[in-house]
Amino acid sequence: MGSNKVWRGARAIGLGVLLAAGLSGCAGGARDDTFSLSSVPEVVGPTAKNRQILVPEPTALKALDSEQVVIRLSGSEIQYLSKSRWSDRLPRLVQSKLIEAFENTGKLGGVGRPGEGLAIDYQVVADIRSFEIDAGGNDRASIEISVKILNDRNGAVKSQRVFSTSAPVVGSGNAAFIAALDKAFSQATGEIVSWALNSI
């Protein structure tokens, strides 16, 4: 797929300009196609019924902290996928799917968001470093998320790891790009949840 043809109509600006502009003028319109992250993988891991965890909203740079789908053309130049948007801000979407994945294991005493009143043992603190389509060569979805397991009782970091996954774009059109991101995120989610269960 030729990148110039595929991304025609997207807004292309340098990363420095993007951050300075605060994403102004890039909000999706009412006619944009809206996508969510659908994949919640089955996870193998030990049971920790005596543990309750908190999943705060992940942190992310402003370029990722929006409803826009990021396309990276080079190391410093990004675009947003035209006529497409996430169903919520990306960090909130990732938080929701991580909570769902932890809950679906049935292996924990409780999983919650801040403010839900759980007696928390550990926090799963994530930072989204990359969540994009890499259009620099072969089009691929690329995701990188740094995760810490934080002891909620004493503030000590019990474990820390960076998760990097990718998936090829199969087909053409916006739905194909989103499907690749969904597949890469599903893999990352499975690895994060399995690792966390083994860490607590």
From TrEMBL:
Domain ABC-type transport auxiliary lipoprotein component: 37-192
Keyword annotations of the record: Signal
Domain of life of the native organism: Bacteria
UniProt-listed Pfam families: ABC_trans_aux
InterPro entries for this protein: ABC_trans_aux
Keyword Nuclease: no
Signal sequence extent: 1-29
Protein's name in the database: Membrane integrity-associated transporter subunit PqiC
Organism encoding this protein: Rhizobium setariae
